[in-house]
Amino acid sequence: MRVLEIDSRPLRARVTVTLWSPADVRDGAALPLLAVHDGPEYEAQADLTARAAAAIAAGRMPAHRIALLHPGRRDEWYSASALYARALSGEIVPAIGRAVAVAGPPVGMGASLGGLAMLHAQRRHPEAFAGLFLQSASFFIPRFDHMEKDFGRYGRIVRFVRGVVRETAFDHPVPATLTCARDEDNLHNNRRVTAALRLQDYPAALVETDGGHDFATWGGALEPHLADLLTAVWGEH
Questions:
Q1: Which label site among 15, 22, 37, 87 has the fewest CB atoms less than 10 Å from its CB?
Q2: DSSP string over 167-188
Q3: How far is CA 75 from CA 4, 72, 145, in A?
Q4: How far is Cα of residue 115 from the mean position of the Cα atoms in its chain?
Q5: Is 237 a residue whose pLDDT tops 80?
Q6: Domains and CATH numbers, the chain
Q7: What contacts 194, CB < 8 A, 6 or more positions away?
Q8: Three-state DSSP state, 65
């Protein structure tokens, strides 16, 4: 793995990215990219790159690179922030592409607020993403998520989600897989957003699982759904 430090003008901050590539792949070999919010947590608690390496070796998943995005000011950046979406699409992803060869736009992945932020970035900058893998995303809807009203960016998230579910069309839908545990408070809003994305011609599916709002559940939901999405987006490599 290698660590990139990317200066962002919109965020007025330095964003850290830990970049993983399959063994023996040179920097100049173009591979698709999976960009992952809360990347260090996915790595520490769900063994994300080890799972990817095993799936690639077994032929269950196309070969790809993984950008483990460090969260920084998570509650601000991951809460439907236009500045963060601009930094991600216009600075962070291009900087990764300058460090190593990347084939096409990335697939974006995240859980909880990180999942919300990936959908928000794709809606703001649709050409920047080829697909979405969103786990227990924090799609706050007042009817279902009144308990979250004390969160500092609750209103901004509600406004964004309301816009998504009210849209009847979207110019650049991409394949999207969502996962959520059946006992989570997030389940109803994930169902609502998935239905809205389908109406907007996203090839979107919601996978309902056992478990809770935690990395053990999200890690358990990776197989086979992440591999299926990446194969659908990138084909066989």
A1: 22
A2: -S--SS---EEEEEETTSTTHH
A3: 22, 9, 17
A4: 5
A5: no
A6: 2-234 (3.40.50.1820)
A7: 176, 178, 204, 205, 206
A8: strand
**What pLDDT digit, counting tens, does each position of 62-106 carry?**
999 999 999 999 999 999 999 999 999 999 999 999 999 999 999
In the three-class reduction of DSSP (H, G, I as helix; E, B as strand; rest coil), residue 47 is classed as coil
Q: Please give the biggest Cα pair distance in the chain.
A: 50
Q: What are phi and psi of 193, to 5 degrees?
A: -70, -40
Residues constituting the chain: 237
pLDDT, tens digit, for every residue of 207-233? 999 999 999 999 999 999 999 999 999
Please state the pTM of the whole predicted model: 0.96
186: β partners: none
What are the CA-CA distances from residue 154 to residues 109, 140, 160, 200 (Å)?
21, 7, 10, 25
Interior/surface letters 23-54, b for 16+ CB within 10 angstroms, e for the rest: eebeeeeebbbbbbbbbebbbeebebbebbbe
Residue 38 has what pLDDT?
Answer: 98
Alpha-carbon distances, residue 80 vs 16, 21, 205 (angstroms): 20, 29, 22
Q: How many CB atoms lie within 10 A of CB 188?
A: 15
- Are 178 and 206 in contact, with CB atoms under 8 Å apart? yes
pLDDT at res. 236? 65
Query: 18 has which bridge partners?
Result: 3, 68
Long-range contacts of 43-46 (CB under 8 A, 24+ apart): 43/18, 43/68, 45/215, 45/216, 45/219, 46/215, 46/216, 46/218, 46/219, 46/222
Tokens of 223: 């197989």
Q: Which residue has the tokens 């389908």?
A: 198
